[in-house]
Fold:
Amino acid sequence: MNFAHRTLTSGLSVLVLSASPLLADENLLGYTAGAETLPKGASEAYLWITHHGDKRRGDYSMQEVRAEYEYGFTDRLSGAFYLNGYRHDVNCDSTGCAGPEDDGEFVDLHINKFQLSGFSVEAKNMLLSPYKDDLGLALYGEFTYAGVDSITGEKGTGFELEGKIILQKPYMDGQLQWLNNIEIEAESWKGNGSDLTEYAIAPRFRSGLAYRFAPNWFIGAEGWIDAEVLNPGEGSWEFDHWDVFAGPSLHYGGKDWWATLTYAPQLAGSDESDGNNTGRHLADHEKYEVRLKIGYNF
Amino acid sequence: MRPLASLLMIPAAFVVAPSYAVEYMSVEQAQRALFPDAERFVPAPVLMTEAQRDAIEDKAGVKQRWEKQDVWRAEKGGKLLGWFVVDNVVGKHEFITYAAALLPEGKVSGVEILIFKETHGDQVREAGWRKTLEGKTLADPFKLDKDVPNISGATLSCRNVMMGVKRLLVLQQLALPAS
Structure:
């Protein structure tokens, strides 16, 4: 074997440990989005499954399922359509699954089924490329129609608008990525049989790091803080809660597909009632979330 | 917790997914393509000290990751035609292996992609994009969409190959003789 061959062989031996490509809108983290968009004419299909586990009492398990199709209209503008559904496996007794025992929330709630909830449409516009401009910047908007309450599984009619400013800073030639999302969500909900329409506004900040520790593999950590003010339908706005989640993330990128798994426990939050002092908000959120996202490029 | 256990099983399957590698051109083929007049290629690997690597990073703007750079002298009639260098740069998931031909006066005469595995953006393998790097010297800006075109969906690959070539020009200036 001559030197030239040995050199290439040693290069190949590094590469053979790995193997794969670059997918432009690949999600390196489960929750915090990156600034890149799909190239013009490219398509990507996603499947999201987010498990929400455990409230203060009772048995609470919910899986949010989203099937998404995304298309690159231009090199900087992409759009997506989602179908959304929820599987609930919930057993809350007479004290409810959250809130104080003498004035609980989700009292006598028993549900075990999957329901299709509705759809979402999204648009994402990359203003600056993380690799060409050193700091990536994108604007993101999403509209959702929902026919199912994500927490209780009850039927109704809801609308949601979500906006994000996405920042992405690559380091070490792109081996390390720092992602930040500044988000705001506005939503309405009217349960079937109710005369009142609730409104809520929730600002949120997400941040996360992803590091490629081996070919194809990224390890990361991300977290977010959000807050919610709501109008329960009686005309006045009030602060409802805040919460903080954070946890590790693992990402694999293959030739045509990728997958990301994130575990995020709730680290802190405002108690959903003065009667509790556990430091977590367990009415609108749960003790932990686990998200698996799979993407396929074609 | 059953749903959580099910979720964790799926990525476990990915860990054992088979890997692959595609070689588009061997080192020997790239040598013949980039220096067709050369009569022989003499191995001249460069071993760099930490201070040299820091100097390359300072001047090139990108890190010199390797202590050893594989370099060959392309010669004809005992005269130096140029330097043939094999290099790796970060792709989104993998290293991209390419070869650059550098003329003694510090100018790029050609680039060949040896191993590339990105789904989008294999245009960096095409002659049209690689040709945009020909003639580059350290006096050029090396800026995407300024003097080198960008390829959407492969911006990281374009940037890192482009900056890799610039780094090799700096390495030549700091560590290789003029003749």
